[in-house]
């Protein structure tokens, strides 16, 4: 069994760390929040007070932090992970961050003699609690193979997407598809309403025709056709619009940096920005249909 330093015990990191404890590993967890540290202790882990304590004895370091700035600081800061971990330590960053930060931190880890993967997730808080996350992994083959047994405990689907940063690239490309397709499906339902076409009829036809996609058949933005979708519970998340906006912004940053043309990604970012600025950042992202309709009722 391994000793794991886990940094960032929030909504996602907390239950992920608890699953590593449940599997028999020793987890030394760090978070700025005393509440988050207490939850780890309740789950059977050991809460620590400094990065040095979290990583100096660790075989593996896992991070689950808000954004690229946090990840750069935690790994590369003067008193950071790379300064305190033993050479050869395996590092897994599961935060969703910009591709450039992921590649910069991976290069610094490599220079310090560490193995590192970026391994962002999809599946949300329920997936973190249930150990059913999907991990999109970027990094060298040997680091991927070393990380896989730990990712298998926290997730169900583990995909190696290529070299450093490619996990983040896969995550933002996928979520750009999701953001755009949710708007497309929502617009179609709004048009159908104006034309007197019943929600269920449009669903029955499009779900077996060329308009079929995940946003329609697994996460339908109107109540009724897909009972599990957040539309049936007043758009409680689920996946909050604020999180979608974060991922769309990361995709736009990457598109600008790489020169890719993503006009619909840009439009989806602008629409989710408007939606969030209207006070809806905590609403499920499929609630954007209410915004497109111009009225709050279904
Ligand atoms: P969160 O805000 O609940 O947790 C982040 C934690 O990091 C907080 O508890 C915070 O105190 C801690 N932290 C920040 N800086 C720190 C530092 N320097 N040292 C120690 N701890 C520090 O966020 P979350 O929902 O758990 O998301 C974490 C990451 O996972 C984000 O990148 C997010 O985009 C991604 N993600 C979240 C979801 C979701 O549904 N919540 C889904 C997929 C991916």
Task: List key phrases describing it.
3-stranded mixed sheet, 13% strand, single chain, alpha/beta, 14 helices, 298 residues, binds nicotinamide-adenine-dinucleotide
Write the layout of secondary structure elements.
Blueprint: E1 3-7, H1 13-22, E2 26-30, H2 34-42, E3 46-47, H3 51-55, E4 60-63, H4 68-76, H5 81-84, E5 90-93, H6 99-111, E6 115-118, E7 121-122, H7 124-130, E8 133-138, H8 141-154, E9 155-162, H9 166-195, H10 199-206, H11 214-217, H12 241-258, H13 263-280, H14 288-293
Parallel strand pairs: 1-2, 1-4, 2-3, 4-5, 5-6, 8-9
Antiparallel strand pairs: 7-8
Helix pairs in contact: 1-7, 4-6, 9-12, 9-13, 12-13
Bound molecules: nicotinamide-adenine-dinucleotide.
Nicotinamide-adenine-dinucleotide is lined by residues 7-13, 30-33, 36, 64-66, 70, 74, 95-96, 121-122, 124-125, 243, 246.
């Amino acid at each position: 069994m391994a000793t794991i330093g886990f940094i960032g015990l929030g909504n996602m990191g907390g239950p992920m760390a608890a699953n590593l404890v449940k599997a028999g590993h020793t987890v030394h967890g760090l978070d700025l929040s005393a509440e988050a540290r207490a939850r780890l202790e309740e789950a059977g882990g050991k809460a620590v007070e400094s990065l040095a304590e979290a990583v100096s004895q660790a075989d593996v370091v896992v991070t689950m932090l808000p954004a690229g700035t946090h990840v750069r600081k935690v790994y590369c800061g003067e008193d950071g992970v790379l300064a305190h971990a033993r050479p050869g330590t395996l590092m897994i960053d599961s935060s969703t961050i910009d591709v450039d930060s992921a590649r910069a931190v991976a290069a610094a880890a490599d220079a310090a003699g560490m193995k590192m993967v970026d391994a962002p997730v999809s599946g949300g808080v329920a997936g973190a609690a249930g150990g059913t996350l999907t991990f999109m992994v970027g990094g060298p083959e040997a680091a991927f193979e070393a990380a896989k047994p730990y990712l298998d405990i926290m997730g169900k689907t583990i995909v190696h997407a290529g070299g450093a940063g490619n996990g983040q690239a896969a995550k933002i490309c996928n979520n750009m598809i999701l953001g755009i397709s949710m708007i497309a499906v929502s617009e179609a339902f709004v048009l159908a309403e104006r034309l007197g076409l019943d929600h269920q009829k449009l669903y029955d036809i499009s779900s077996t025709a060329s308009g079929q996609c995940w946003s329609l058949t697994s996460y339908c933005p109107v109540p009724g056709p897909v009972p599990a979708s957040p539309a049936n519970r007043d758009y409680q998340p689920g996946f909050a619009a604020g999180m979608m906006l974060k991922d769309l912004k990361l995709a736009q940053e990457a598109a600008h940096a790489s020169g890719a043309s993503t006009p619909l990604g840009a439009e989806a970012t602008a629409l989710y920005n408007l939606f969030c600025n209207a006070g809806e950042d905590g609403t499920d992202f499929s609630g954007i249909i209410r915004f497109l309709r111009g009225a709050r009722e279904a």
